[in-house]
């Protein structure tokens, strides 16, 4: 758990003083969107280079350990599933028989293409969430005149991850004290899931009503715009950089569609 510049805990954010940490959150968001749009159109070699570049940047900015760990945990099962489905199960004209199994080289190529594309998009997202605190993102959106409801909708899921995770751990510990066995077979663990999920979902639903009452009590949407006291740093250079990144992101996706 890390505490951000805004003083609120965030599960994925890692404090630091790198350029990405000090950049305006909207600039980091523009960079993430540009990387995602590039990953959507680049060939496999391009997405591989983009992923490698994002990993190097994460290491330089001090968030590499956390970002790469999340990348591996997420992409390993996806990679195995892609190889099995596209390389072994889906029938293709170039199936090559190796005795017990038949492998399709074109299927493996397609699996690698999808794998690297998803890895590049995931690494772009991890780079953003590990260097940008959600509360700062909310302030930056308010600073740019985004309606409060839209800003809250964008940032609140990231702010809620940490308390939701802590609550899940507390429920698990409480059920263990009451005799719930979470060290048995997979069958026993699956049977124990309702005991953990039902109180978690019930508390989450009750939280929704409480949060709505608090926001209404503070006149959250009384005005179309909110005033930010300690807004994130911004500059003319970052403003033009954002415009360039947003334009490139749109062109990267739009030109291939028009070309077809």
UniProtKB/TrEMBL annotation:
Keyword Transmembrane helix attributed: yes
Domain of life: Bacteria
Main location: membrane
Entry membrane topology: Multi-pass membrane protein
Location in the cell: Membrane
InterPro entries tied to this protein: ABC/ECF_trnsptr_transmembrane
Keywords: Membrane, Transmembrane, Transmembrane helix
Membrane-spanning parts: 31-59, 71-90, 110-129
Similarity remark: Belongs to the CbiQ family.
Protein name listed in UniProt: Energy-coupling factor transport system permease protein
Originating species: Kaistia geumhonensis
Taxon lineage: Bacteria, Pseudomonadati, Pseudomonadota, Alphaproteobacteria, Hyphomicrobiales
């Amino acid at each position: 758990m890390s505490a951000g510049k805004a003083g609120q805990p965030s599960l994925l954010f890692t404090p630091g003083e790198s350029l990405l940490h000090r950049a305006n959150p909207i600039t980091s968001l523009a960079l993430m969107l540009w990387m995602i749009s590039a990953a959507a159109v680049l060939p496999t070699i391009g997405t591989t280079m983009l992923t490698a570049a994002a990993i190097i940047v994460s290491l330089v900015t001090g968030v590499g350990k956390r970002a790469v760990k999340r990348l591996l945990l997420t992409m390993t099962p996806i990679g195995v599933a892609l190889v099995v489905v596209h390389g072994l199960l889906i029938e293709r004209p170039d199936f090559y028989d190796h005795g017990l199994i038949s492998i399709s080289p074109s299927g493996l190529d397609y699996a690698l293409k999808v794998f690297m594309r998803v890895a590049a998009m995931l690494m772009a997202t991890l780079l953003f969430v590990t260097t940008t605190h959600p509360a700062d993102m909310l302030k930056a959106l308010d600073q740019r005149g985004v309606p409060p409801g839209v800003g809250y909708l964008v940032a609140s899921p990231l702010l809620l991850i940490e308390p939701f995770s802590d609550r899940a751990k507390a429920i698990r510990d409480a059920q263990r004290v009451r005799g719930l066995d979470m060290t048995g077979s997979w069958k026993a663990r699956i049977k124990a899931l309702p005991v953990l999920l039902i109180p978690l979902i019930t508390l989450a639903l009750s939280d929704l009503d409480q949060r709505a009452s608090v926001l209404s009590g503070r006149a959250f949407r009384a005005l179309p715009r909110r005033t930010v006291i300690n807004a994130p740093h911004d500059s003319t250079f970052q403003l033009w950089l954002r415009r360039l990144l947003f334009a490139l992101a749109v062109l990267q996706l739009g030109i291939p569609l028009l070309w077809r």
